[in-house]
Amino acid sequence: MNKNLLFIALIFIAVCSTKCNIQDETISNQEISIIPAPETIILKEGLFIINSDTRVLINKKDTELTDIAKLFVQQIKLSSNIDIPIIAKGEFSGEDNCISLELKQDEQLNDEAYELSVTNKKITIIASKPAGLFYGIQSLLQLLPAEIYAKDKLNSSALKLPAVEIKDKPRFSYRGMHLDVSRHFFPKEFIKKYIDLIAFNKMNTFHWHLVDDQGWRIEIKKYPKLTEVGGWRVDREDKTWGNRPAALPGEKATYGGYYTQEDIKEIVAYAKKKYVTIVPEIEMPAHVMSAIAAYPNLACVGDSITVPPGSVWPITKIYCAGNDSTFVFLENVLTEVIDLFPGQYIHIGGDEATKTAWKSCSKCQAQIKKEKLKNVEELQSYFIKRIEKFLVAKGKKMIGWDEILEGGLAPEATVMSWRGVSGGIAAAKSGHFAIMTPGSHCYFDHYQGDPDFEPEAFGGYTSLKKVYAYEPIPDELNHEEAKYILGAQANLWTEFVYDGKHAEYMVTPRISALAEVVWSPKEKRDWDNFNSRLQTQLQRYKYLDVNYCKGTTKLDIRPEFKDSSLYISVNTERFKPEIRYTLDGSEPNANSPEYKEPFTVSGLSTIKAALFEEGKVLGKVSERIIGMHKGLGKTVRYSVPFSNKYTANGESALVDGLTGSKSFNDGFWQGFEGTDMEVTIDLAAKTEIKELSIGFIQEQKSWLFLPKSVTFSISDDNVNFNLLAQIENNIPTDSTGIIIKRFEYQQNTHTCRYLKVKANALKVCPDWHGGAGQNSWIFVDEIIIN
Fold first, then answer.
1. pLDDT tens figures, 649-687
2. Catalytic entry in 212, 388, 699, 781
3. Which of 409, 564, 623, 633 has the least C-beta neighbours within 10 A?
4. pLDDT at 88
5. Span 716-732, mean pLDDT?
6. Known catalytic residue at 287
7. Cα–Cα dist 680/713, whole Å
8. Annotation marks residue 212 as catalytic
9. SS3 string of 462-524?
10. Annotated catalytic, 504?
């Protein structure tokens, strides 16, 4: 009798433990890896365990709510083979062992906010709109092991969620990702996967760049040649983007593709279920050679052209702004576009139009006279304003790249600021909304690691850490002006991105960094904490079959002058790295000193450092020449200002001990556009000098050229200067690849207080170059004085 009672009691305890999810186990804060980080998260005691008796409750029978619930139960089914039913409240008695999705009106919850509560008995997600429930589900899934995204990887004992209380909402309303499908075409199924990545990171906007010189990718029924002709180009995929010859007479165009209107409807419907709004971009008045190839009468001169297979610069083949038939065409195109995309925005481009043709076009000049305009810049403003008026009449809002500010901004236009942040600042100060997407932090076509170990990219250097450091609201804006910054967006231009796997590599995991920038509170951002959580996110990407970048092996070797000593720090984006280094220029090995904290150096040192894994170098050895030289920390006066786009370390950049890497956009190179560089260094007292050097970088595909020559001059009074040396450049301007050259002087000892250094620049790109006649750049790093 007693044995039977004991047996029944044991069964009762086991059942209660299963049904009521009573557990003694706990999960620490360090094990919670939600990206983007929630606004608040409080860890409680206990666990909720999903099992075959768990139910999902929705507070009303509703297709949209059911679809959200399905996203969760399908993921559970995929990973563990547990099939959880979805039940409307009222059809289920009791609330233990259930996951409740509840919509309720609450002024404290904005449209995308949610509250998530997990106890050992129940999970509740509350939101005022379905979007909030959707984001709550994303966070709920991220409370589970990364294997939740894999097929048949989890057993029921692993489906444990920590007891937490989360309150969360996005910082910005616009959280976007862009994809250029003109330079290279991406199939419909990949577009859906790209939308999945956007939604997975709680971003809400897909900017779909459908039109450019190299391909028209959207079916317009009224103008079938746009895709029949404009959607295809000759195949030059075996050649680099900037070196692709035009089509030969009679050569067949075989590379390309386009999306039918049925494809677009399918993709829009798919995005809607993921709470992603699609913003289509229909370029104008430039970047439209694909349209002009199909309908030559759209240009000022109606000569026949073909769709270019590669780079075009400058962009002179543009729509005629003086021909009313151009606007009839565009309004017909936009009418079909509007019918396909239900979102509030249409992007019209508006960038990089070289208006040479308008200056000589009689129709354009007549339009200028008729509208009482001053010049072709105001004619472009007229063009954009006329299109905006049409869009507003159709119930849409217009977005354009920041060039739409030139000549006068359209009344209700939203500015997308890409040439730095100045466009966004100007828009906000004038009471216009702006979306921030500066090339410095948000161009994902830039390298994210050492170019020697990365797929060929457009150039630049936009690391994961740099993306995470971005702040969308410029310091120049006050509290009221800051309200006009809608958010930020990353752009993936695809000149060097050939397929979906390559696109995934360029986007992930940088998309996760930007997602936290635009979602999480500014004060919550913490690089080390993010990097720790990212390790789980990378596992999720693996199970989702995303070709993510595993992280740069590039090391940041950086000096800091403090208390009369020069301290060297060595940092990396890698999580918990093993770094070893040398100071004598020799290659580091497994027996070299391991970097633990900043160390001091005296004199000039060639520091080499590398990441190590299992005793072997991981990636490439990083090298930097750093040391105490006589110019370090001295005052530098600029005769010619440096560009605000490439400031490096500002007015101390040339004497801060930092030399640049092979990435001109690494933050150590200071740029000068279309001008010489001339600086004077005040050494504070008469100083003996014997050795001088200054470094420059050439990457002609990015319009960076070495100077023609460099001169060093000295003075005691800062008035009368004596020429010390003029050093000529011996490297041809058409040399390809990345070239770093130091112009050096090593001869007799001289005494001076002031040193003047001048670099004589090309100023414009050579005649043979794709940017012939346009401003060229010189990039300089450190002036070393010994």
1. 899 999 988 888 888 877 889 999 999 999 999 999 999
2. 212
3. 564
4. 87
5. 96
6. yes
7. 9
8. yes
9. CCHHHHHCCCCCCCCCCHHHHCCEEEEEEECCCCCCCCHHHHHHHHCCHHHHHHHHHHCCHHH
10. no
